[in-house]
Write a sequence for this structure.
């Protein structure tokens, strides 16, 4: 898929604006993944550019989490090509760029000591650490951590113990943590899973604020609910039985036909103020 060009303007002398092609961040070509004789990903092509934010939508077992693991290069495909930040799997030392991929998924919060202050949970991600005493941190590191927490609406919780936060607050703290290493790509595996309605909506607002930031990395988020698509996301990939069912801009591809086909049920979809909802069609 071709990305649209953006404009880069100079202000010295006469103002000039020239088109600049967005950077190719991630490219998967004809990727297959087979485990224990079961095909999880089938001949999948997927590209992410620097000016895009993607939602991967599909039912349980469609291969969404497997796709994120491959994109982060923690899972090697059975076949196909993966290029991340101009480094191709099999021809580059991927360990050198793994820190440039932020990942938030299930189970990370269980690795963190509940007694840690929230600011330490965020700040320690600079070195991929779980405890603040493993490394030395500067005042600039602390300011940076507070900046990320401010964007995500939890800076007032900086001194609070991580274990006392609500599920939604913990999820936003983990999002702030994933930004600490200045990632070039941010991968989110069902970040709203298990949240109650107020917590989910606070997270959606935080994600919308994040992607609206000019320096925010492109985000790829997995979900199986259209209600969990934050305002401001640009593209969608429908995944069904490990294969691409539809892919493109949300405005073009998120519709009743594609949603119903993907989930195998007749669904009605509605959009209001940049957010979506769906329900079954009663015959």
């Amino acid at each position: 898929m071709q990305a649209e060009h953006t404009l880069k303007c100079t202000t010295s002398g006469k103002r000039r604006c020239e088109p600049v092609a967005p950077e190719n961040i991630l490219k998967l070509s004809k990727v297959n993944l087979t485990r224990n004789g079961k095909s999880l990903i089938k001949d999948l092509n997927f590209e992410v550019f620097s000016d895009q934010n993607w939602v991967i939508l599909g039912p349980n077992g469609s291969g969404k989490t497997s796709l994120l693991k491959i994109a982060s290069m923690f899972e090697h495909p059975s076949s196909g090509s993966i290029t991340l930040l101009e480094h191709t799997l099999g021809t580059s030392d991927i360990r050198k760029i793994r820190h440039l991929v932020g990942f938030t998924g299930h189970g990370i919060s269980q690795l963190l000591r509940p007694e840690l202050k929230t600011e330490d949970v965020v700040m320690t991600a600079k070195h991929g650490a779980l405890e603040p005493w493993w490394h030395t941190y500067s005042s600039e590191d602390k300011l940076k951590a507070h900046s990320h927490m401010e964007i995500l609406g939890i800076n007032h919780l900086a001194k609070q113990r991580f274990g006392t936060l609500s599920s939604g607050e913990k999820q936003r703290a983990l999002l702030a943590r994933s930004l600490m290493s200045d990632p070039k790509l941010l991968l989110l595996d069902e970040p709203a899973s298990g949240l109650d309605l107020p917590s989910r909506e606070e997270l959606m607002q935080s994600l919308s604020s994040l992607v609206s930031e000019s320096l925010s990395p492109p985000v790829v988020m997995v979900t199986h609910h259209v209600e969990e698509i934050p305002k401001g996301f640009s593209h969608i990939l429908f995944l069904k039985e490990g294969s691409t069912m539809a892919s493109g801009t949300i405005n073009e591809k998120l519709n009743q036909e594609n949603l119903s086909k993907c989930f195998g049920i007749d669904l009605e979809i509605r959009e209001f103020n940049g957010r979506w909802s769906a329900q079954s069609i009663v015959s």
Observations:
- The helical segments are 64-71, 118-123, 139-151, 167-178, 197-212, 250-253, 256-263.
- The radius of gyration is 19 Å.
